[in-house]
């Protein structure tokens, strides 16, 4: 006998479902960075139970997507230049090394997949569907670090998601994204040539340029000194990409 309860509502009693539902809302900006709400409001808005909601919020706090509040309010972690800098330091330390481990293992099927992801990104860019673009963008980068091992793969996937919060919030122009897509094509060509060192170098430059743009958009004049020092240590050729072009 049917109870008339929807599958979504039944899932609302499952911690994993509630966590994924709220995490996605935070990543795409439905729960805006820095916004403050309550557990009751979230439970009503998403049709979820209070007990799994509390557990899900604890998981989100551990992932630094929700700020612990002693007054039991729920505060979505704000986006800041300092946080973006730290995020890209982690990506630049991990992902180029992971790409070096992966590129030599790629096959012609992987090359075809990478071409397909770039075509999908072009499709979503044409419609300025920046949320839709996220999936092929994630898949493209994941293909380049897939052989680094599950611990590293999982960490890089989390870092990607957190970086996408910044990309989606900045509402990139089509012109800006086309420049990023040119960098993706250069990455593809290096990977297809099975040149791990070149792929790693291009990744570091790609992320340095993105980090510089994001930091300046959140705090004009911000100097990402920690990231600059990191690049000088491991990818000196990428340092110049941090700074805006002349003129």
Overview of this protein structure:
It is built from 11 helices and 3 strands. Helix 9 (174-192) packs antiparallel against helix 10. Residues 1-9 have low confidence and may be disordered. The N and C termini lie far apart (70 Å). The protein folds into 2 domains: 7-76, Arc Repressor Mutant, subunit A (Orthogonal Bundle); 81-242, Up-down Bundle (Four Helix Bundle (Hemerythrin (Met), subunit A)). The relative contact order is 0.12. The protein is globular. With 247 residues, it is mostly helical. A 3-stranded antiparallel sheet has the order 1-3-2.
Could you outline the blueprint of secondary structure elements for this entry?
Layout: H1 7-11, H2 15-28, E1 36-38, H3 39-46, H4 50-62, E2 66-67, E3 73-76, H5 81-103, H6 108-126, H7 134-145, H8 150-170, H9 174-192, H10 196-218, H11 225-234
Antiparallel strand pairs: 1-3, 2-3
Helix pairs in contact: 2-4, 5-8, 5-10, 5-11, 6-7, 6-9, 7-8, 9-10
Which features does this protein show?
247 residues; mainly alpha; Arc Repressor Mutant, subunit A; Four Helix Bundle (Hemerythrin (Met), subunit A); 3-stranded antiparallel β-sheet; 4% strand; disordered N terminus
């Amino acid at each position: 006998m049917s109870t008339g309860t929807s599958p979504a509502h039944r899932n609302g009693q499952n911690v994993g479902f509630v966590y994924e539902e709220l995490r996605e809302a935070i990543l795409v900006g439905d729960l805006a960075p820095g916004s403050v709400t309550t557990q009751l409001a979230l439970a009503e808005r998403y049709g979820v139970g209070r007990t799994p909601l509390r557990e899900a919020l604890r998981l989100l706090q551990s992932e630094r997507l929700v700020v612990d509040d002693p007054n039991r309010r729920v505060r979505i972690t704000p986006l800041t230049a300092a946080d973006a800098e730290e995020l890209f330091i982690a990506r630049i330390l991990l992902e180029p090394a992971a790409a070096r481990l992966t590129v030599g293992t790629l096959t012609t099927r992987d090359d075809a997949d990478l071409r397909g992801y770039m075509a999908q990104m072009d499709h979503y860019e044409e419609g300025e569907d920046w949320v839709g673009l996220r999936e092929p963008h994630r898949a493209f980068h994941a293909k380049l670090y897939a052989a680094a091992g599950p611990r590293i793969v999982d960490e890089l996937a989390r870092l990607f998601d957190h970086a996408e919060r910044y990309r989606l919030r900045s509402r990139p122009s089509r012109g800006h994204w086309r420049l990023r897509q040119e960098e993706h094509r250069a990455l593809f060509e290096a990977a297809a040539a099975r040149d791990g060192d070149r792929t790693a170098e291009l990744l570091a430059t790609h992320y340095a340029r993105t980090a510089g743009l994001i930091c300046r958009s959140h705090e004009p004049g911000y100097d990402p000194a920690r990231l600059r020092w990191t690049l000088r240590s491991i990818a000196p050729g990428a340092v110049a990409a941090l700074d805006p072009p002349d003129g």
